[in-house]
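re: that complex we talked abt at group meeting.

here r the seqs, copy pasted straight from the sheet so there may be weird spacing, ignore it
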Amino acid sequence: MMNFWGFSIAEARVIDYDKNDKSLAEMLAEEMPTTRLCIGCGGCSATCTAGNLTEFNIRKLQMLLKRGETKDLRDQLHKCMLCGKCLLVCPRGVDTRKMILFLFRQLSEQDHNS
Amino acid sequence: MYYDPFVLPFTLGLNILLIYLIIKYARWIRTFSTEDRQTIRRNIFTLKTWKAGKEVFLESLVHHKIFRINPFLGYMHLCFGLGWFLLIVIGKIESLVYHTSIFNPPYFAIFFRYFHPAKETFPGSNVFAFFMDLILLMILSGLLLAWLKRLYSKALGLKRTTRHRPFDLLILTVLWLIFPLRFLAESFTSGLRGGGSFLTHTAGDFFNSFLPIEQLSYPAWWAYSSALGLFFLLLPFSRYMHIPTEIVYIFLKNWEVRQGKHFSGISQFQLYSCSRCGICIDRCQLGSSLGMTDTQPVYFLKKLRHGKEHSILVDNCLMCGRCEAACPVDLRLNALRLTQRQEDIRITKSTYEYIRPAAAKTTAKVAYFAGCMGHLTPGVIRSMQSIFHKAGVDYTFIDEGGSICCGRPMMLSGNHHTAAIIQEKNKASLEASGAELLVTSCPICYKTFKEDYRLDMQVLHHTEYLDILLREGALHPHCSDITTVFHNPCELGRGCQVYTAPEHILQTISHRIATAYEGKDALCCGGSLANLHISPQQRLQLAEDALNAYAAYRPDVLVTACPLCKKTFSQPGSSLPVQDIAELVDGQC
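got the structure back, here u go
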């Protein structure tokens, strides 16, 4: 990461949609249909308790998940404190808190199985 | 020696039951922690034991809490509890007066009418016979109400009654048979040999006029004894296990054995103490607003006890505590459900490193903590700041630049370990302020500060603090005609027992309208973070229904004292204005 004058630029990279494992995203979409309603407004990230203190972004997490980049997701997810503010500000009625909890449980299950 | 083979089913059943109960309870008590054992030892020889005895009489026998739900329902339970108890006790006294030996076998008192030759009178024999008949009549009247409840529960104040397993319906039938069989056996014997009083004697004569009671009398005693024996044998595997277990639980509860975060011995006692009376069903807003009629504590505990799949039920609870407030057995229903939520979050040491170091020490004696949720309702923060200013209080605003979560939402998801780490971080920052009094605007924070943090300063919710300021005359309210209805947040009212402070404030600064949802009967706004199952749309429905219930009283303002409630109530787009109590006080002073 480069960081000049408070701005950072993401490194150039390739997202290989063919190789990425999107099973978690598919499962989430099926189990929790409200996650499909997200319009990516970022309201959740703006109000986020953790997001105000560190690099943690629910909108970005959703994007990573949909791309199948679960490793990055795994690194970020546990920063959430489950305070539930995101749920109150979401204009689309996405069950953000339950989504995070669902992902926690899935990842914990995967760890358990591996 | 008074003996007849027909007493065998009763005697065998009773002995097997007693042995089973002793083994079962001893096993559970053996799993108690050392702390719990010490607590019991400390409290067993104190007035608490006496208090427990009183509670056993009032709850297990009289069922006085159920009278509050509905007098007929209370009477029905009283008939079975106190009625059966009196039948045993007075019967025993009667048998002692007659026989004079305290060591007469238990069955002698139960089947006294069979063994006692009616012509042989003893001191007070008529009075005893009268009372025994009266009690039997009382139980039979209760039985009639129980039948009515099965057919039409609304008559006894329950919109819905519990759906039982076939096995429980079988034992229910056996229980229902016991008393009519006793009535028949006693009546036939009275008709044959005399004795009895206004009920069994009259009935005996009546049956004698058209039935061959000579042939029926002996089999009737066999049937009565068999019904009793069968009931005792089935009891440990049915909901009637609550009869003996509840008594032990009441003692343990009074000796201050607490339900902790994990499923333990005391949880077992609670699990088996649930009588499945179904009073929790109507109290649950998930049922009344969303039509979810399988998630109430009665069904959750049933599935848990019988090892049935219950993962959705574990998550699907608002933990608003409305059921707990009404539970006649006083079970810790929220804590029990929470014991079944799993720790899913694996965190590392570095996880919460991003949380900033503690706040700087100030000279102010009062510290204000808005809470992370409080920052979603900046109006409340502004009002509190204005009130501090008006009252001339020197305060420090701990989380002015934003705060971290108090850890309770994390705890409610079952992740106690992770929550403890967040709490540690928060505690350091709260105590670093050097204040003596901590005032918080969020009841969720308030509850966990009081229960889990063990802070070295006093903690108040702003409702209590405002009440103190008003009582001390630090604030000067002006007369107002505004009418208000108070929505007591779950975590503040039922959660922390704060009932009088908001009531007093609203009476001072407005015309408070009393509703059906006062005190422990307050509704849940639907925003509860404890429910991990329902969707935002369903939450909206809960909020709408609660708002409509309050709006029916036509107040100018609906007042609450929780940022989460205020935010949740603002979502359905109702015309009823919702204000936090701090905003109202600020506006009126």
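couple things i noticed - Residues 478-588 of chain B form a domain with the Rossmann fold fold (CATH 3.40.50). Chain B touches chain A at residues 344-348, 351-352, 354-356, 372-373, 376, 402-405, 407, 409-410, 413, 415, 422, 527, 529, 532-533, 535-537, 540, 564, 567-568 (CB under 8 Å).
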